[in-house]
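User: I'm writing a short methods note and want a consistent example. For Binding-protein-dependent transport system inner membrane protein, I'll paste the sequence; you return only the structure tokens, no commentary, since I'll be parsing the reply automatically.
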Amino acid sequence: MPGSAAFWFLIPAIFTLAAIGIYPLLLALYNSFHQYKLADLASGTPFIWFDNYIATLSDPSFWGALGRTALFLCVTLPIEVALGLFAALMLHRTTLPWMRAIARVSLVIPMATTYAVVGLIGRLIFNRQFGVANYIGGLVGMPPQDWLADPTLAFVSVMIMDIWQWTPFCALILLAGLTMVPKEAEEAARLETPRWSKILWHLQRPYLLPGLTAILILRSADMLKMFDAVFTMTRGGPGTATEFISVYIQRVGFRLFDQGMASAQAILLLILTIVLSRLYIRFVYREAA
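Assistant:
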């Protein structure tokens, strides 16, 4: 039977999804309701109901890490979308096919770079002694800055690296939306008004909103679980200046060895991600529909 054959071909994918997606989620949910401290396994893992969740919600450090993550998201994501939209509009308007092809290939390079490598590149760029950032600043008369030792500059440094890596993603998604706009409609709109802002808002915006929704969902989820680049670049420091929520959860789970508390925090982070995704779909995607 063709149907049964297709089912057998799906079994490896189902097992893989269960092994790397469903099982860790269920294990984290189970641990979140238990006292599970790796440094005190002799005491067992008793069931403690919602104590881990209550302790998490009353933990100032958790709210501090979540606040830093929210600030990072609210500042960095709009910049990435704005720069990506600008790049997409420029590529959409160009009449040189070879330039568009080269730009598309160039935009893929930052996205293809792994998070850990981006963090290492950031450490080199913002190094006080031999970093490119201080060299460029010296060309305009700015004194050398200890970027990764100053709380504000370290936060800005992480922002810059994230913007460098993921603005191309926004540009490619928005460029795909712009290519869906009928050329006849664009030509008529340009004859009607020379103002690009009116064309963008009244003609191109509906075609951009589905892609914008995908960008908001994917990038928000990435920023909420952002760990590799930050940990490689700053280790969450100086102090707690770049200790985002994922870095804080890692510290609780693998430095304080409290797996129960870390699991509860991870589940709350998952709930927050789902809520944000639903809000994006409700207020952005529905407008496009």
